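Structure tokens please, single chain.
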Amino acid sequence: MRKKEKMKERQAIINAIRGSIRKWSLISVGLGNDYGPENCPLCKMFYDFNAQSCLECPVSNKTGQEFCNGTPYDDCLEDSPQTYRTRANKELMFLQRLLEDEKESFLKDFHKKP
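Here you go.
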């Protein structure tokens, strides 16, 4: 893959992380809902419904696990509404850190000589 195509792909990943941050920002203040892969920009980009796999997702790459296991999302699934929002905020912070990591990696790759 050429550098220009790779940079476009990386920018699309960054945009998907931003979309997931928007989703969890709304959830953390009680204005949004989680419908799993159905309303997750990262899942829409990386989740393979046929193979039931999301190994290339940056969340999976970060945790070494699939399906957001190893993230605060894991803890959100069975919570009361108040606890859910608190844990949703933790998921939001996780994604914000992931975005910073991805942007830093993008810049390093961008400035790397061919």
